[in-house]
Every structure is written in C-alpha cells, then in structure tokens.
Design a protein that fits this description.
alpha+beta; three-stranded antiparallel β-sheet; 2 domains; flat
C-alpha cells in the first residue's frame, strides 16, 4: 500500500504492479518504465509535457498548449 498523499498513476498490464506515482499537492511525479521505448512515437509525450509545464509554472511562464 502507498502512504498518505501518494497516488498511483500507472499500473503494469503484465502483472498489475505499480509503475507510476504522484504526490498530491506537490509538483512531483514518477514513472518506472521506459516511456520512450513505447511502440508509438507520441505515447509518452504527455509525461514530458507535464515535466516541462511544471518547470514553466515555477518560472511564472505560461504552460505549453495541449496537442490535438
């Protein structure tokens, strides 16, 4: 089980193990897989966009627009 304030975000389809978490109320997230090794070239784009937007937010810059 996960401690209070930690939410599961990704689950392995192979064995049901936890592969990702986020901390509630904090700019922290993690994944335990190789998203760049996915079959599709854009399958993990949202993870990198989220990371960049966290940095932009900290700098007081506007977030990147979502892609269609």
């Amino acid at each position: 089980s996960l401690p209070s304030g930690v939410e599961e975000t990704h689950v392995s389809l192979f064995d049901g193990s936890n592969c990702g978490i986020t901390l509630t109320g904090r700019p922290v997230f993690s994944v335990q897989h190789h998203p760049e090794a996915s079959p599709g070239p854009q399958d993990s784009h949202y993870l990198f966009r989220r990371f960049v937007n966290l940095i932009r937010e900290k700098r007081g810059e506007p977030a990147l627009a979502e892609r269609a």
